[in-house]
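Please go through the sequence line and token line underneath and see whether the fold suits the sequence. See right below:
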Amino acid sequence: MKSPNHTIGILLLAGVSVQAKVDFLRDVKPILEFNCVSCHQESKVKGKLRLDTRELAFKKTDVINPGKPDDSSLYWMTTLDKDDEDVMPPWEGNHPYLMPKNEQAMLKDWIAGGAEWPDGAILRVRKRLPEIVDFVKHVQPIVEIKCVKCHWPKKTKGKLQLHTKAKAFEKDDVLVAGDALGSSFWSLCALPPDDDDFMPPDPEEPLTATQLAVLRRWIEQGAEWPDSLELSPKKKAQEITGITPRDLYGQLDLKPGPMPETEFRTYTQTITPTDVSYTMLPVVGGVYIMGEEGNEHAVKPHKVKVDSFMMAKTETTWDMYELWQLSVERDLREYLKTKATKHDQLADGVTRCTPAYTDMTFGMGKQEYPAICMTQLSAKVFCMWLSAKTGHFYRLPTAAEWEYACRGGSSTRYFWGEGPKDITKYAWYTENSDWQYQRVGTKKPNPWGLHDMIGNVWEWVLDDFDMYEVHDQVAVNPLRSPDTLYNRTVRGGGWDDKIELSFSGARLPSSPDWKKKDPQIPKSVWYHTDALFVGFRVIRPRTIPPAEEISKFWPTLDEISAIPKR
């Protein structure tokens, strides 16, 4: 596929200077994401202004006035003196900062040219870039990991070497100080991954948005490169590959066996230094009849015994999930210059998912709404991260644990009775959800105090959809671990399901159709882009398993090794 930038790339390789039109996705979107969106999006609407979608950004005509940059506050407020209280980004906190002149000019040219904003382009919060990019600190790690392995004396792809300043600047069009678009070193990396000239050539390992922005700023600030410094190929850092589940178990000093009686109680945990918290409720174990006779959406009835555990009061929210997914918690620690604790360091070592290709809320809401669209792997890695951060052992529930918790001691089809008469008091489903998920905890809880166990979003459990073999005897803490990518199990019904799928025993298998719209090749291991109805909640078992059983609850080594390195 040839992109609009393809011709530019060919001309750059041929040494032809090109003045490209300002492109929103390539030029403007990064400026807004790294400078503006953190204070102007759903969870933080400073000055009653949002800039994460086109509709909201253009809501006030004085913010973006197409054709008139000097009448657009998005532009002119960036040109104010640092002492002006209206300067944007604000000169405050631990990161006093002014937008670079070339980025101001880019915004001005974009607005002057009509301020085009493509449909579907939704902006996300990104950590602010350093005002001055240092080669050794910021650029060298990127070049050594992403570039040098194909461009140094032992392998000179395209007759280009990048291990020294002299070699990197040998060709006039590779690095042009002050001109990123005129530098094939940067412009080819900014092409779409399916473009023939895209760099690095592996579409599974493109430069991240942050890496692209750092390299662009470095070039446009003069592309300084120490004369005597020689680079060499480097492997990816441990943070990228992630700590293994078995190593994390050991470093957390988890001890197999039951927790003290005093710990088996309701508690609320706040994830410092944020103000995001969650509440865990005790569920006393017991024996019950799991399943429902003659129902294709439930398992065959059989007697099950489960041990005690604690379960999250609500489904995992975006507020909580993004602390891991977007590194919000780690970035806030860095911003506040908070000294990392042992648990902070362990949490930082847990791998994080790649950036989503679009806004995974799909406009349905974020603050206090359930996180959705994650794979079972994402949910299990989140449990690892939460365990590392808190020192407690968290995981997904088994199907048996989940249904036991949902029933709340009842033996009827619904935890409130045999019939669906009162379902609207307890569940969000197709008849009352207004065709979207809803804030967690707004319906009445079940007898254990758990909200949204039926409806709102389906919830991941650990089991394969093909059940363990059912016998007449009691199944004790049953679990059938998946050995294939599909069919894994979600439980409980969702906001877009009819009443037939909204009951305590309801279950559903995962499907490749949940990734239909995923544009990535291969499909992401982290996201089910079409599963707008799938979320999860965590449990903390009263009894910690031995280390040799940890692969039943956290990702297996095969799952970890299948995660694309980035």
About this structure: The chain has three domains: 6-112, 135-235, 246-561. Confidence is low (pLDDT under 50) at residues 1-19. The chain is about 25% helix and 10% strand.
